[in-house]
Amino acid sequence: MEDTSVRKTVLLVDDIADNLQLLRRILAPHYRVKIATSGEKAIALADCAEAPDLILLDVMMPEMDGYEVCAELKRRARTRNIPVIFVTALEDAADEEKGFAAGAVDYITKPVNPAIVLARVATHMALWQALADLEKQNSILSENVRLREQVERIMRHDLKTPLTAFIGIPALLKNRRDLPADVVESVCMLEKSGVKMLNMINSSMDLYKIETGIYKIRPVPVEMIRIVRQIEFELSELINARGLRVKICINGEEAVIGSRFAINGEETLCYSMLANFLKNAFEASPENGLISVTFYDKPQTSIRVNNSGEIPEAIRDKFLHKFVSHGKVGGTGLGGYSASLMARAMGGNVSFTSDESSGTTIIIDFSDNSSSPMTERRVGEIRALVVDDNEMLLFTVHEILRSIGLHKVEALTGAGSAISFLNSGNPLQLIIIDWKPDDAEYLELFRQIQAAPSLKKIPVVVIGSLPIADALRPAVVDGSVEFVGKPFSPDVLLKIVEGLMNRMLELCLKR
Q1: Does residue 399 contact residue 198 with C-beta atoms inside 8 Å?
Q2: Domain residues for 154?
């Protein structure tokens, strides 16, 4: 007999007893089942020590409907990560959009099909377990340098290559017209999950490389005020909830519209570094407090992040150490530590002061990091154009380019946008386009790239389905175009771009 103590738990929420009993009969042989007949009871059962692993939630309920219940669950720290699947007779697209906006991960329509219910529940159970496992691995990366080559192989090849199928194959399936709507929804879910996992792997890999001293920095001028504004926007919910105000200064004077301040670094590292320090400042500041971010370029480049809160005495001596956290539910203690590593990778040194009168100030002093080898600096100046109608594949290609230091990437959806961009005369050293032989605009884009004298020397990579289309084959045969077949491995595209590096660097020098 199966041990029910290790079964996953599903919470069923519906105000109609017959619906609950039907779902119970379907799920009880495979899962532990809890039942709630109202939104209030559902929230109480979810926000407890024995929380469910997944919730099947009816939309139409009296007093508190499913949308309100889901939104409340997503607001709470202990329940926000529990996947919620709506069970509803509503089939309007606006209703589905409202449900996903509230935080649901999927829909099951009434009358329910037992096979579909079991398949959806199993899929989301497995998906969320996989994401939880990846997040745990992200916080406890191995510190043993002897495992460096093995970890890099696992991260770059063993995990990334299969993930490419999760991203690439769904993109192809979505174009088929013979798939049921529920299958298309599942395909989209797989695609988004693949991108999330890929992003987690890249972040983990960067942190591991910085920790072990093998991260290769390719600095370019990074506009910092824009980054602070972006972080402020993304954390606006936290800022507004606490009544905080953010003030940006340059050399002691408050920045105005149009103010700019650049440092030599990598945009992703600068963003993550400041996001960690600013989030700490927002959380530590008293309500209605002021957080100031000041940039200095004399006597050397430096950044100061100040809030009026104090670092607790219990952790003050080890504030920037690994796994140090204080008073945060679910905190990993990696924020300040990883931000310090990122600053160090860009030639910065992090220190801080903290006292009752002046609050806490994070100080990031940068040495002169403009003396990096010329080749590395030039790699950071390469501009690439990537064109694909699928945003997930755009993201994937962007991440592959980022991994070898190409940060100036113009990612566009649609051939029309790409044609306008090329006609504007923007300098480029690499073009990567999706091949759509049945799309007249894509054929025109390719024709212009082949015909324009100003574009003939720019390396072109085409990503397309095999066999190679007749219109494309001559350019592939004569070597003017590099071809990558779908679904592609990141390593294949990476090697092709690296093989074109000298040509791209020459174009940079001739600019």
Answers
A1: yes
A2: 150-211
Residue 131: strand, helix, or coil: helix
Q: Answer yes or no: are the C-beta atoms of 290 and 305 closer than 8 Å.
A: no
- The conformational region for residue 333 under phi > 0 = left, psi -120 to 50 = alpha, else beta, is left
| Token representation of residue 216 | 């290769």
Residue pair 273/342 in contact by the 8 Å Cβ criterion: yes
Nearest CA-CA partner of 117 in 107, 127, 103 = 107
Q: Tell whether omega for the bond before 453 is within 30 degrees of 0, i.e. cis.
A: no
Is residue 285 one of the residues assigned to a domain? yes
pTM of the full structure: 0.44
Same domain, 236 and 185: no
Structural domain count of the chain = 4
What CATH number does residue 430 fall under? 3.40.50.2300
Q: Which of 131, 161, 187 is the last residue of a domain?
A: 131
147-192 residue pLDDT tens: 555 555 545 445 555 555 565 666 667 667 777 877 777 777 776 6
- CA dihedral (441, 444, 445, 450) in degrees, to 10, reads 170
Exposed, middle or buried by CB within 10 Å (0-12, 13-18, 19+), for 205? buried
**Position 139 in a domain:** no
Query: Tens digit of pLDDT for each residue in 36-52?
Result: 999 999 999 999 988 99
Tokens linked to 131: 């994401």
Instruction: Look at residues 160, 194, 211 and tell me which one is the last residue of a structural domain.
Output: 211
